[in-house]
Specification:
Blueprint: H1 20-26, H2 28-32, E1 43-49, H3 68-76, E2 78-84, H4 90-99, H5 103-106, E3 122-123, H6 138-144, E4 148-153, E5 171-173, H7 202-216, E6 222-227, H8 239-252, H9 258-280, E7 287-293, H10 316-319, E8 320-326, E9 335-337, E10 341-342, H11 346-354, H12 370-374, E11 384-388, E12 399-404, E13 407-412, E14 418-422, H13 438-455, E15 461-462
Parallel strand pairs: 1-6, 1-7, 2-9, 2-10, 4-5, 4-6
Antiparallel strand pairs: 2-8, 3-15, 7-8, 11-12, 12-13, 13-14
Length: 469
């Protein structure tokens, strides 16, 4: 394994005032600076939940939670059963959404600011601490096409100088360098949301801000990135919902986290508020809605079963995500798709949906999944990839992975051993076929090695001070 280190540090950031949303509706940008001609593309709402398990929504098989609004999206759109985050932790996946590039291509391969555990076999490579300004983000491309762009909620891709307003968003509500809501989910907290009512629940407030943004955009097409902190720690559900789920679980004789279920309930209510706002304004039929999580669920807080492991691992529990796309008049309601897709695909997909012109400076790793959504044909690519050269706080170890068809291969970087699974038969990744199917393992390993070389993926290095326990 070749070795080298590179790194760039960034300063932490601050928030941008929510009042800009309302200025947008009546100020000079709305009145005199609207680009011409107006694009004919659809509106785009992208809802991202934090740390939600593939198995949390009812439409993905959960029988403990209540997610009627997420389930409504699935009934009215397409539910993708083999959708993946580009990384098992948050910041790299978020960067992949905004850039259309794999985390390894960006050299943003760990959550920010990351950690450097002591006395481990490997030392993770240096990586950048922000989404580079040189990247032409999805928001920048859509803004150039005449869209009003708004980011509401978690950012976690850099601080001052690298915030949403520096990356193509007209509006930034509560987006900072922080990865979790320090101070908790009850306002006011350190996010300093202006006008917050004492005791107001963060998920509810972000829903309100998102709906205000939609209403304030006027006649212009819009791109809303609604990025919830829920259901990330601290695990704090609204008391009335916690009691509801405690009673429900007790009656069913099951042991589950009522606070987490309450947080899921609030996140689902947020989805409902956004959908209701689109209906109220009469724009639902020309608005695409995406729903996704940034990585797998936190083991011990929620269940990822039957998937193996959870957040911080490149096993399925850490990277397979619930993903739904509602595109009225195009996507068949209630449809499903089992083709593997990745968070790097959102960028080219949204460009094709909106008709926005790609910026030639931005090379994309993803592929538009519009043919899958329209059910008109397959994707062109051969495989999708992961490179996570770090230890995670969730006991994850440095590893890489590749999925081609039904087969997925993992390479564990500590000792180089390979694991091969047929996900169609073994979604829980229990039966390692690397020795049984050595030719298939070698084929996929060569794909993974070639891809790492192509994107110049930085590997971990040996720790000379490691002392075996």
């Amino acid at each position: 394994m070749k070795t080298f280190d590179r790194g760039v540090l960034a300063r932490s950031g601050v928030w941008l005032a929510t009042a800009f949303v309302f200025w947008l509706a009546s100020g000079p940008l709305a009145a005199s600076q609207q680009p011409a001609p107006q694009p004919a593309g659809v509106n785009v709402v992208f809802i991202l939940v934090d740390d939600m398990s593939y198995c949390d929504p009812v439409c993905y098989g959960n029988r403990l939670h209540e997610t009627p609004n997420i389930d409504r999206l699935a009934r009215e759109g397409m539910r993708l059963t083999d959708a993946y985050a580009a990384c098992p932790v948050c910041s790299p996946t978020r960067a992949s959404i905004h850039s259309g590039k794999y985390p390894a291509t960006l050299n943003l391969t760990d959550w920010l600011p990351g950690m450097h555990p002591k006395n481990r076999k490997l030392i993770g490579p240096e990586f950048i601490r922000q989404l580079p300004l040189e990247e032409v983000t999805l928001a920048e491309v859509l803004k150039a096409a005449g869209y009003v762009t708004g980011s509401v909620g978690k950012w976690h891709l850099g601080g001052e100088g690298f915030l949403p307003e520096d990356q193509g968003f007209d509006v930034n509500v509560a987006g900072t360098a922080a990865g979790s809501p320090a101070g908790g989910y009850y306002l006011p907290n350190n996010m300093n949301l202006p006008g917050a009512k004492k005791g107001e629940y963060l998920t509810d407030r972000l829903s309100l801000e998102a709906c205000n943004f939609i209403r304030a955009k006027g006649d212009r097409p819009f791109f809303l990135y609604l990025s919830h902190h829920s259901v990330h720690t601290p695990i704090q559900g609204k008391p009335e919902l916690v009691e509801k789920y405690r009673a429900k679980f007790a009656a069913a004789g099951v042991s589950a986290n009522a606070h987490y279920a309450a947080m899921m309930h609030s996140a689902d209510q947020s989805v409902g508020r956004v959908l209701d706002t689109l209906d109220e304004l009469g724009i639902a039929e020309r608005t695409v809605v995406f729903f996704m999580s940034d990585n797998g669920g936190l083991s011990g807080v929620t269940s990822n079963a039957p998937l193996r492991e959870g957040k911080g691992h490149v096993y399925e529990g850490g990277i397979r995500e619930p993903m739904i796309v509602r595109w009225p008049g195009v996507v068949e309601p209630g449809s499903t798709c089992g083709v593997p897709v990745s968070s790097v695909d959102f960028y080219p997909t949204i460009l094709e949906m909106t008709g926005a012109a790609a910026d030639p400076r931005q090379r994309l790793d993803g592929e538009s999944i519009v043919p899958l959504l329209k059910q008109t044909g397959p994707l062109k690519r051969e495989a999708i990839f992961w490179h996570y050269p770090h230890y995670s706080p969730q006991r994850g170890v440095p590893a890489g992975a590749v999925r081609k068809g039904d087969y997925k291969l993992l390479e564990i970087y500590e000792d180089g051993h390979l694991e091969l699974y047929n996900l169609a038969e073994d979604v829980g990744e229990r039966n390692n076929l690397a020795e049984t199917l050595p030719e298939k393992a070698a084929e996929l390993h060569r794909l993974l090695v070639d891809w790492r070389e192509k994107v110049d993926a930085r590997p971990p290095t040996r720790n000379p001070d490691y002392v075996p326990r």
